[in-house]
């Protein structure tokens, strides 16, 4: 394991980073992170009325350079969709082509908050003994809300939840 920070906190309006790690595996490097996601009352109401919520996970890995800007090795985004179906009374989380249904919102948020991204980087992409800077955040993507809600979301804390950038040093 390259790095693990239990209890690391990067809080901002409803999303906190519990822990983050970049782990070496046979087929490359794997990103694992756990968040604590708490929706505002307004977001819960909108979700229960059928408005899907889109979350974006952003991850960056850089090699620091003293003579120039840092070299960006990885800059990736992953989107998740949280929705509620009133007919089945189930919450649904979509991640790429994977969809899972949950009977309650806390269960759906727990699934959404566990991030396991395979193949962040190829094997051998990081030099042994090198030092790299990793950064991670999860945020509600208000640009994917329906237009009527986007107008309300501008500058509103009720409609925009995000973690701060969580940064750590990776040493393979």
Report on the structure:
With 172 residues, the chain is mainly beta. It has 3 helices and 9 strands, in the order ββαββββαββαβ. It has helices at residues 41-48, 105-113, 147-153, and strands at residues 15-25, 28-37, 53-63, 71-85, 90-95, 98-102, 114-121, 132-140, 166-170. The strands form 2 sheets. A 6-stranded antiparallel β-sheet has the order 6-5-4-3-8-9. The chain has a 3-stranded antiparallel β-sheet with strand order 1-2-7. A hairpin with a 7-residue loop joins strand 3 (53-63) and strand 4. The chain is elongated and about 55 Å long. The model is unreliable at 1-13 (pLDDT under 50).
General form: elongated
The description of the largest β-sheet is: 6 strands, antiparallel
**Integer-rounded radius of gyration:** 17 Å
Strand content: over 45%
How many DSSP-defined strands? Answer: 9
Keywords:
172 residues; mainly beta; six-stranded antiparallel beta sheet; three-stranded antiparallel beta sheet; 3 helices; 9 strands; 47% strand; disordered N terminus
At a glance:
The chain is mainly beta and 172 residues long. It has helices spanning 41-48, 105-113, 147-153, and strands at residues 15-25, 28-37, 53-63, 71-85, 90-95, 98-102, 114-121, 132-140, 166-170.
Draw up the topology in text.
Layout: E1 15-25, E2 28-37, H1 41-48, E3 53-63, E4 71-85, E5 90-95, E6 98-102, H2 105-113, E7 114-121, E8 132-140, H3 147-153, E9 166-170
Antiparallel strand pairs: 1-2, 2-7, 3-4, 3-8, 4-5, 5-6, 8-9
């Amino acid at each position: 394991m390259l790095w693990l920070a239990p209890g690391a906190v990067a809080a901002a309006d409803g999303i906190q980073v519990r822990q983050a790690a970049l782990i070496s595996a046979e087929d490359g490097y794997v990103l694992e992170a756990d968040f604590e996601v708490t929706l505002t009352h307004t977001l819960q109401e909108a979700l229960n009325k059928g408005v899907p919520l889109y979350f974006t996970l952003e991850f960056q890995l850089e090699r620091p350079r003293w003579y120039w800007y840092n070299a960006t090795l990885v800059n990736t985004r992953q989107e998740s969709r949280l929705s509620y179906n009133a007919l089945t009374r189930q919450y649904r989380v979509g991640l790429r082509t994977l969809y899972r249904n949950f009977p309650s919102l806390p269960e759906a948020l727990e699934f959404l908050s566990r991030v396991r991204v395979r193949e962040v980087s190829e094997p051998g992409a990081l030099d042994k003994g090198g030092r790299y800077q990793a950064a991670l955040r999860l945020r509600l993507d208000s640009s994917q809300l329906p237009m009527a809600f986007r107008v309300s979301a501008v500058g509103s804390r009720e409609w925009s939840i995000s973690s701060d950038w969580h940064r750590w040093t990776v040493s393979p």
